[in-house]
């Protein structure tokens, strides 16, 4: 058994999230809406009748309901994409999450070192006055939880 299928192999699933730029090109065709019925389908019994029967009215209500759901979902999608764009704009390198994590860890280490020095200075001040460290906190605008 030999195969003469020369089509390329299926591409792997993309992990790229949709953005405003690629959304319209990446939207599946099942999400598009057409107000015209296909011409190659046979006519249903309700469409061959007078056209104003209860089945047509129910179908019209359902179509309107679906249209409003599509509009609502599109608005939600636009909001989510806007939030994603906002977050991505704040990242220094949104394509490299490992670098972002490393930068955050480095920043946390620096913060902890500075906090330790500040605690030491507050301890020296409290010792020189003969009071507890927490008694010195309000003088420097700190809360006992800081």
Task: State the secondary-structure class.
Answer: mainly alpha
Radius of gyration: 32 Å
Order of helices and strands: HHHHH
The major pleated sheet works out as:
none
Portion of residues in beta strands equals under 5%
Tally of contiguous helical segments: 5
Low-confidence stretches: 7-15, 37-42, 44-49
Helix content: 55-70%
* Total strand segments: 0
N→C terminal distance: 75 Å
What's the overall average pLDDT, rounded?
76
Net shape: elongated
Task: Provide an overview of this structure.
- The protein has helices at residues 20-26, 45-48, 54-90, 97-129, 133-136.
- By secondary structure, the chain is mainly α.
- It is elongated, with a radius of gyration of 32 Å.
Protein traits:
146 residues; 0% strand; mainly alpha; 5 helices
List the helices and strands and how they pair.
Layout: H1 20-26, H2 45-48, H3 54-90, H4 97-129, H5 133-136
Please provide a brief summary of the model.
The chain is 58% helix and 0% strand. With 146 residues, it is an all-alpha fold. It starts with 19 loop residues before the first helix and ends in a 10-residue tail after the last helix.
């Amino acid at each position: 058994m030999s195969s003469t299928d020369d089509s390329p192999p299926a591409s792997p699933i993309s992990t790229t999230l949709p953005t405003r730029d690629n959304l319209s090109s990446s939207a599946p065709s099942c999400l598009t809406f057409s107000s015209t019925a296909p011409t190659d389908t046979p006519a249903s019994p309700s469409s061959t009748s007078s056209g104003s029967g209860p089945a047509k009215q129910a179908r019209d209500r359902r179509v309107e309901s679906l249209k409003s759901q599509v509009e609502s979902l599109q608005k939600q999608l636009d909001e989510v994409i806007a939030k994603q764009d906002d977050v991505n704009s704040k990242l220094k390198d949104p394509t490299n999450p490992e670098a972002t994590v490393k930068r955050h860890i480095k920043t946390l280490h620096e913060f902890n070192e500075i906090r330790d020095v500040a605690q030491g200075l507050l301890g020296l001040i409290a010792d020189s006055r003969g009071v507890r460290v927490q008694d010195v906190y309000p003088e420097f605008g700190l809360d006992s939880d800081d």
